[in-house]
């Protein structure tokens, strides 16, 4: 169970107020007796649920004040479920309230059990809607596994979506750790091959002589140690997708073999005589400058054209606007949860350092830095020092923001004081703060 939902009871009849209070065990009950106290409670607590007596002072015989409160509540907190309570002869007001957005109505005299039932149902609906909102936010991510808000990176995501359904070869170009494998998987997942295998092989990590048998497989006895028939990655990916990471590191001899495969779409296992047709989509990735490798004769131009029917440039993390802190927060949450550590935030020098650091290792480096900090740091907030980054203040930006905030705060307080003719209690209610807070704000701005 999460936290108790907040229920605000707006009722001017003191007796009824305390009677209702007792029948809502399990909720955090708040009370108000008129429009201004109701709105103060709404602003301060944003209750998920409200029961609202439509007959409020100054005109309890009429529903106008109650309906005005309803509209004001829904303007401040549109998700709040409001149940209006009204007298027996005021059905039409109840209907009017529902048409204004109230969740339901209830006609007096009050039967606590029935009212509780209605409120419980409203609570269930609120929670369901909340869950849906969260799900919808989750689905907002541009591509599965990709966190970004940078326009350049979003373009990359759109491009992945567009090329995925086709069978064209895709070449992903980007520095190490920029998410090439994540994007290759996204291409596969969005393609008609999604239900088949995604087979990845890192061409730089395997010595040349092994790489050939890894890719093409071998028959029993093909070489010393080949004790049984083994199929290669290409065949293994049949009907699915083969991801050739670090394709720029593929030795020239294998480049020729790969090119032949791409032209003929068949493989022969090492030491074998059979020609085996294989249906795969190929995605390549590299952080090397293939143009340069072609010029120096280290990469075949004809292979380059085969594998780059579509080529996608992935920007480095330092060029993605806003992404460093967005990713940092996402990783902080993820690792805190994994390590069962309390959720902490970043200090402002940490965020500034994150924004200014160059991130040569890109997203992978960010992941490592945050993971380590979550394990090692023990303060309230994670600092630049915990991250092992140079602390940075961005004084100009901080001051501008603070100045803007102060100016807006001061103006709002002056307005509230003016409107209430200097009545501290009313002004505090209007602003949704406590009286002591308002006093200290008045002191801060010399308004007392
Ligand atoms: N935009 C992103 N949002 C969230 N996580 C990401 C993002 N980009 C990369 N990652 C994560 O960063 C790590 C590195 O990504 P990935 O392995 O795809 O990079 P790469 O470019 O293939 O690296 P390399 O060139 O070193 O093979 C992975 O753990 C991946 O999940």
Automatic annotation (TrEMBL):
Gene3D superfamilies per the UniProt record, alphabetical: 1.10.8.60, 3.40.50.2300, Homeodomain-like, P-loop containing nucleotide triphosphate hydrolases
This protein's UniProt keywords: ATP-binding, Nucleotide-binding, Phosphoprotein, Transcription, Transcription regulation
CDD domains linked to this entry: AAA
Domain Response regulatory: 6-123
SUPFAM superfamilies: CheY-like (SSF52172), Homeodomain-like (SSF46689), P-loop containing nucleoside triphosphate hydrolases (SSF52540)
Boundaries of every Sigma-54 factor interaction domain copy: 146-375
Superkingdom, taxonomy of origin: Bacteria
UniProt modified residues of type 4-aspartylphosphate: 53
A biological process term (GO) from this entry: phosphorelay signal transduction system
A GO molecular-function descriptor: sequence-specific DNA binding
PANTHER family: ALGINATE BIOSYNTHESIS TRANSCRIPTIONAL REGULATORY PROTEIN ALGB (PTHR32071:SF113), TRANSCRIPTIONAL REGULATORY PROTEIN (PTHR32071)
Name of the protein this chain belongs to: Two-component system NtrC family response regulator
Protein source organism: Alkalispirillum mobile
């Amino acid at each position: 169970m999460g936290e108790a939902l907040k229920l605000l009871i707006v009722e001017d009849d003191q007796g009824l107020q305390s009677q209702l209070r007792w029948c809502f065990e399990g909720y955090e009950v708040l009370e108000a007796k008129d429009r201004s106290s109701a709105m103060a409670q709404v602003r301060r607590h944003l209750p998920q649920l409200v029961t609202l007596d439509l007959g409020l002072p100054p005109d309890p015989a009429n529903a106008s004040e109650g309906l005005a409160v309803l509209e004001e509540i829904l303007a401040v907190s549109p998700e709040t479920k409001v149940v209006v309570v009204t007298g027996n002869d005021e059905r039409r007001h109840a209907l009017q309230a529902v048409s204004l957005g109230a969740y339901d109505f209830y006609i007096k005299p009050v039967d606590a059990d029935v009212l509780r039932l209605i409120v419980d149902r409203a609570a269930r609906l609120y929670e369901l809607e909340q869950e849906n909102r969260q799900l919808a936010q989750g689905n907002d991510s541009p591509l599965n596994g990709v966190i970004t808000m940078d326009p350049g990176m979003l373009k990359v995501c759109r491009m992945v979506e567009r090329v995925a359904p086709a069978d064209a070869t895709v070449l992903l170009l980007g520095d190490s750790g920029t998410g090439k494998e994540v994007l290759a998987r996204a291409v596969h997942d969005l393609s008609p091959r999604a239900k088949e295998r995604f087979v990845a092989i890192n061409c730089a990590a395997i010595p040349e002589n092994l790489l050939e048998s890894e890719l093409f497989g071998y028959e029993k006895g093909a070489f010393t140690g080949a004790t049984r028939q083994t199929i290669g990655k290409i065949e293994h990916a049949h009907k699915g997708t083969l991801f050739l990471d670090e394709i720029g590191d593929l030795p020239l001899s294998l480049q020729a073999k790969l090119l032949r495969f791409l032209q003929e779409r068949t493989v022969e296992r090492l030491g074998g005589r059979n020609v085996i047709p294989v249906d795969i989509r190929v995605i390549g990735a590299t952080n090397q400058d293939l143009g340069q490798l072609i010029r120096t004769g280290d990469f075949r131009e004809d292979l380059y054209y085969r594998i780059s029917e579509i080529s996608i440039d992935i920007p480095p993390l330092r060029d993605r606007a806003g992404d460093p802190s967005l990713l940092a927060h996402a990783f902080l949450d993820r690792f805190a949860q994994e390590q069962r550590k309390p959720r902490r935030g970043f200090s402002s020098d940490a965020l500034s350092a994150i924004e200014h650091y160059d991130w040569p290792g890109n997203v992978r480096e960010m992941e490592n830095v945050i993971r380590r900090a979550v394990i090692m740091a023990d303060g309230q907030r994670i600092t630049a020092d915990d991250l092992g980054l140079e602390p940075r203040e961005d004084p100009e930006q901080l001051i501008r923001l603070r100045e803007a905030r102060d100016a807006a705060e001061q103006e709002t307080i002056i307005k509230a004081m003016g409107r209430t003719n200097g009545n501290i209690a009313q002004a505090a209610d209007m602003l949704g703060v406590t009286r002591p807070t308002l006093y200290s704000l008045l002191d801060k701005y010399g308004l007392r």
